[in-house]
Amino acid sequence: MEQKLLTELRMLYETSKESPIVIRIRIRMRDLIDPDDLRYAVDTTMKRYPYFCVELQKKEGQYVFAENHRSVVITNSLHGVELNAEASNYHMLSFSWQENWIIFDVFHGLTDGTGAYEVVRTLLYYYCSERYNVTLKEEGIRLVGDEISAEEWIDPAASRTDLPLPTQHMQMSDALNLIASAGLEKDHRRTVYSIAVSESEFMRFNLDNDGSPGTMVCLLLSRAIAKLFPEAENTIRLALCVNQRKALHAPLAHQSLVGGVMLEYKDQLRDWSLEQQGTAYRGMVFAQTQEENVLKGVASMKGINSMILSKESDAERKQAASAIRGMAGRLITATVSYVGKANYREAEQYIRDFRLWTSSAGDGLLIEMSAVNGRFTLEFLQTFSSPIFVNAFLKELEENGIVYDLQDVNELELPNVKLPWTE
After folding, report:
1. Quick one: CA torsion of 43, 19, 362, 114, rounded to 10 degrees?
2. Residues 42 and 291: beta-carbon distance below 8 Å
3. Alpha carbon 180 to chain centroid distance?
4. Residue 367: in which H helix or E strand, if any?
5. 3-class DSSP assignment, residue 380
6. How far apart are CA 314 and CA 230, in angstroms?
7. CA atoms of 104 and 115, how far apart (whole Å)
8. What is the block-wise mean pLDDT of the chain (423 residues), using blocks of 10 residues?
9. Between the CA of residue 305 and those of 7, 76, 111, 310, 422, what are the distances in Å?
10. Contact 299, 307 (CB under 8 A)
């Protein structure tokens, strides 16, 4: 089945070698990886997700995802392979492994964290069943033999014709720019800092302070930034990612359906208690995640993608996408993304570590949150190497009695997506 592109277009034209728009999920298992069992698990898993077994093609001036019957590539490496290229058999995704790590790379325009989690949930079911010769419960896992409904295929944003008029974010004031404020213009080493906290303890902390995981991380980061730059004139404005599927009434959709709410750390909040600030942030999230407001965000994204599609050449489309990315960077200080509790079911007992990496938005900072096997992992994904914001955030955790573990610091490495207009 051929899929015309719309929702995918902005990310397709934004991605670059310097900033690949790719999701990389890294899973450290309890034991060394068995490559034969992994091959079985990948092959079986991909039978369940035909809409991810695609290659990019251009037909009559428009790009489409066409069926790709070539094998999905698995490499013995931590680096992965270039996507949409010969190395990946022209797939927009691939797998790799080394020692006890499994890595899943997928073009972010093809899906989002919610969609990627579904694939991983299926993969772990088949891999752990084979590797450990066990029978795992099937509940809540998409498996081969399921009926794949039209709701999984259809782009719910593209097919909607009754969306409300979008909100005009262009009227917003400029947000505080972290790189300029910290003087990091010459620091171009893409870096990821991984921090772990106990899930149960952090959830208890949230309950005590009227917070939720995503809003509390936004609040703690806002407080940390404010203390670093107390005299800053521009607004500290964080974007918290929102899954648009609920508002679209499309829980099964596989597309990249991520919007955002804007959380401003206003001057009048700064003298309030943490609990009062938590209530204020929760209120902002509640208001902005009402169905009509989320649908306004969908309408905005649909409008942007339609505008990109209206351009005649790839060069014009790329220029338009770059301008949109630049505008978003001007309006946002940093971004926080939390897909929700992974819930990999019985396979979690075999998982020792879980990471989700992707490119940070604009010139700012992205925190990707994961909840797997009893702990939250917070990935500080940066276009720079300086630990200034990590250290300020950790100080906030310390001052609020939250025990953390700075697990490691890595180069933020993501595979390139080979595109026709860059050849």
Report:
1. 0
2. no
3. 25
4. strand 365-372
5. strand
6. 43
7. 12
8. 89 92 97 98 98 92 92 97 97 98 97 97 97 94 95 93 78 91 94 97 94 96 97 95 96 96 95 95 96 95 92 92 87 94 92 94 85 95 97 97 97 94 69
9. 6, 37, 15, 9, 20
10. no
